[in-house]
């Protein structure tokens, strides 16, 4: 089969031919219908050899959807022909976190070498993929896999981040989204759908700010130090009740911290390496700084429910598997509007 692989440190991903995977006991073989392109792929491919832990060659793709092609011995919850999405942050399935469906915070994954598809295990950017356990599958039913595959990360990750802050986001509050890219443009819609907050979006690109407005942001500002005053003005000096940083570089974590008001949340989702000096007097009183990772299985089901209700729609650009390297070039150049989706 054809697959998109990262094969050598520092190289660009390439389309290669590899053997078809065979389904083992307890596993599910999917014929992939859609695979999303995430900035985290770009991040891992930028790592030097000493920091890279995902194995080579790596079949990319941690946002995946497919049709069940075959099931291994003992699988009873799905059958060939079912349309499903893949819950990506695989865990051990036994620990206290996994028991709550929070496999993203599995206590044993690292020690047992369990890695998400596309981030260690072979991913969804291939004609077929193996899913280790049927519990990692969420039925899509009538939802279009191409339009909705990215909800498995670009939807689930902001949903989890926002849901945790909901008690602070009632009517009359203000939430700021930094970075209106793949995650951010879905985050804006989730905030509009499940919170009472007025939504402010920041980005460095006017096109991304247009997208932010299109998907529901009520105010947009260019992402620079002037945005702090703009948010303070909008909130009568109080500052934001929650800031979601979907970039996470040094300038954006500093913006996030400077615009958060008393008792606010600063949630750093982007993995840009920015760091905050948090201490008394350096940030507004009682601000909580959080660094969430992906989300729980229950939250993925809720995210798809939002799509079913028409509250969330991912803006997509589609590419064939042969064109996938081009999608990564456009991501690298910051040109993707919403999310790029590969159709293997
Ligand atoms: P993306 O490339 O689609 O979007 C990034 C957006 O940020 C773009 O619109 C870009 O114009 C904007 N941007 C860049 N620099 C900016 C700045 N200084 N100020 C404001 N906006 C700026 O990326 P994505 O796929 O949405 O991923 C966003 C980040 O989240 C990445 O760092 C990714 O690795 C990370 N991520 C984290 C998790 C998690 O679980 N914590 C999950 C998925 C992705
Ligand atoms: Zn676990």
UniProtKB/TrEMBL annotation:
It is an enzyme of class 1 (oxidoreductase). Its EC number is 1.1.1.1. One of its GO terms (molecular function) is alcohol dehydrogenase (NAD+) activity. It holds the Pfam family ADH_zinc_N. PROSITE patterns: ADH_ZINC. The keyword Zinc applies. It comes from the Bacteria. Keywords: Metal-binding, Oxidoreductase, Zinc. Residues 10-342 form the Enoyl reductase (ER) domain. Its cofactor is Zn(2+). SMART domains: PKS_ER. It catalyses: a primary alcohol + NAD(+) = an aldehyde + NADH + H(+); a secondary alcohol + NAD(+) = a ketone + NADH + H(+). This is alcohol dehydrogenase. It comes from Leifsonia poae.
């Amino acid at each position: 089969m054809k697959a998109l692989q990262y094969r050598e440190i520092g190289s660009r991903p390439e389309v290669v031919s590899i053997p078809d995977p065979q389904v083992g006991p307890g596993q599910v073989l999917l014929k992939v219908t859609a695979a999303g392109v995430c900035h985290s792929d770009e991040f891992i491919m930028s790592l030097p050899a000493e920091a890279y832990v995902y194995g080579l060659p790596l079949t990319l793709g941690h946002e995946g959807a497919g049709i069940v092609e075959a099931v291994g011995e003992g699988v009873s919850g799905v059958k060939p022909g079912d349309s499903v999405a893949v819950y990506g942050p695989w865990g051990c399935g036994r620990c206290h976190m996994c028991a709550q469906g929070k496999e993203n915070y599995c206590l044993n994954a690292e020690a047992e070498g369990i890695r998400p598809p596309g981030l260690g295990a072979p991913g969804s950017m291939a004609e077929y993929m193996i899913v280790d356990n049927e519990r990692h599958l969420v039925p899509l039913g009538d939802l279009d896999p191409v339009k909705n595959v990215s909800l498995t990360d670009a939807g689930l990750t902001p949903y989890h981040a926002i849901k945790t802050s909901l008690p602070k986001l009632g009517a009359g509050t203000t939430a700021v989204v930094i970075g209106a890219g793949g995650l951010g443009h879905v985050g804006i819609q989730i905030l509009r759908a499940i919170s009472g907050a007025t939504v402010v979006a920041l980005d460095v690109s006017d096109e991304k700010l247009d997208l932010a407005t299109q998907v529901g942001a009520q105010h947009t500002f260019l992402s620079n130090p002037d945005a702090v005053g703009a948010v303070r003005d909008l909130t009568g000096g109080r500052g934001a009740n929650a800031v979601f940083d979907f970039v996470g570089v040094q300038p954006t974590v500093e913006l996030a911290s400077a615009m958060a008001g008393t008792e606010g949340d600063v949630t750093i989702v982007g993995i840009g390496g920015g760091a905050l000096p948090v201490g008394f007097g350096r940030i507004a009183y009682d601000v909580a700084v959080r660094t969430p990772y992906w989300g729980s299985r229950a939250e993925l089901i809720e995210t798809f429910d939002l799509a079913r209700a028409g509250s969330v729609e991912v803006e997509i650009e589609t590419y064939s598997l042969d064109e996938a390297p081009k999608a990564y070039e456009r991501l690298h150049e910051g040109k993707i509007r919403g999310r790029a989706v590969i159709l293997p």
